[in-house]
């Protein structure tokens, strides 16, 4: 028979951070008391996950007014089968013991183990929330930064490796001047009702709001499938990638009480890349070529 265990822990560090940790393990033979042996787990399974969420701005002087919400998580799942995937009639333990060299033993183990890892990171709304009494274009509070990534890796008896990388980043700027309208004929002192319109006529000499947003996203997927008929034969690598760059610009200008102007611009671009894999560790030469062609 087998056994199973599961644990979870939540830790709160005041209002600064929140930490979560979990682990789960099941061994071969685990199952319900009413399950037959062939219906119970036939492999050793273990899983753990860790996540932390914190406001990094709390670690800096309060006068900076830094807002930096950060999130990071990692999870890992590993499955070790009871029997050798290359020969279902032989226990994996026996196949490893019969291996002559360490290289052969590692090769069998790498082929048999099913492993999955996910890593995520994000920092959203990074901002120095400081503004002048009279709003200025260069006030730190006008700028906001966001960044995140998600990385996944997987390997199993049918997949030699599988990578998924997703990166996203954005930069935003917004400015709303606090100004008093200009009255060109405000100097007129006449109480003539016909001149009242000109006397109270007001012009805003600056736009009411200006905003800009640029966003970039990079997706990359690569998979190397194993050959089920010939272990020594290597199938072609499957690659999927997308590199996008979006930009937005908006300006609103209430020139007078009755004349309102607005302008919006949206631009989307797809950055071309070379064909094929660009993983630095596996293909260092292709990676250098890719850097200079993007």
Largest sheet: 11 strands, antiparallel
**Terminus-to-terminus distance:** 56 Å
What is the global morphology? elongated
Secondary structural class: mainly beta
- Helices and strands, in order, run as EEEEEEEHHEEEHEEEH
Tell me how many strands there are: 13
Keyphrases for this structure?
11% helix, 294 residues, eleven-stranded antiparallel sheet, mainly beta, 50% strand
Ordered list of secondary-structure elements with their pairings:
Elements: E1 4-13, E2 17-26, E3 43-55, E4 66-67, E5 69-81, E6 83-84, E7 87-91, H1 92-98, H2 102-112, E8 114-128, E9 143-156, E10 159-175, H3 196-200, E11 209-225, E12 238-254, E13 260-270, H4 284-293
Architecture overview:
The chain is mostly beta strands and 294 residues long. The chain is built from four helices and 13 strands. Helices cover 11% and strands 50% of the residues. The strands form two sheets. Strands 1, 2, 3, 4, 5, 8, 9, 10, 11, 12 and 13 form an eleven-stranded antiparallel β-sheet that branches. Helix 1 packs antiparallel against helix 2. The radius of gyration is 31 Å and the shape is elongated. 3% of the residues are buried.
């Amino acid at each position: 028979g087998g056994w199973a265990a599961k644990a979870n822990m939540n830790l709160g560090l005041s209002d600064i951070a929140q930490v979560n940790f979990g682990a789960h393990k099941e061994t071969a033979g685990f199952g319900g008391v009413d399950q037959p042996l062939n219906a119970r787990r036939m492999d050793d399974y273990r899983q753990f996950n860790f996540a932390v969420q914190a406001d990094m701005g709390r670690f800096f002087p309060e006068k900076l007014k830094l807002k930096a919400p950060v999130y990071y998580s990692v999870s890992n799942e590993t499955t070790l089968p009871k029997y050798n995937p290359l020969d279902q009639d032989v226990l994996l333990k026996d196949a490893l013991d019969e291996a002559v060299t360490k290289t052969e033993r590692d090769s069998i183990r790498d082929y048999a183990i099913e492993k999955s890892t996910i890593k995520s990171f994000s920092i959203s709304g990074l901002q120095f929330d400081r503004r002048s009494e009279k709003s200025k274009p260069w006030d730190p509070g006008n700028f906001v930064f966001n960044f995140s990534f998600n990385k996944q890796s997987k390997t199993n008896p049918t997949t030699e490796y599988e990578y998924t990388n997703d990166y996203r980043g954005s930069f935003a700027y917004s400015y709303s001047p606090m100004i008093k309208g200009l009255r060109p004929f405000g100097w007129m002192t006449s109480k003539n009702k016909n001149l009242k319109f000109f006397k109270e006529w007001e012009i805003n000499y600056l736009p009411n709001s200006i905003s800009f947003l640029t966003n970039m996203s990079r997706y990359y997927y690569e998979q190397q499938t194993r050959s089920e008929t010939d272990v020594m034969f290597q199938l072609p690598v499957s690659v999927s990638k997308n590199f996008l760059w979006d930009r937005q610009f908006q300006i609103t200008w209430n020139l007078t009480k009755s004349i309102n102007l607005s302008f919006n611009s949206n631009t989307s671009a797809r950055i071309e890349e070379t064909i094929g894999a660009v993983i630095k560790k596996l293909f260092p030469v292709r990676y250098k070529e890719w850097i200079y062609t993007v």
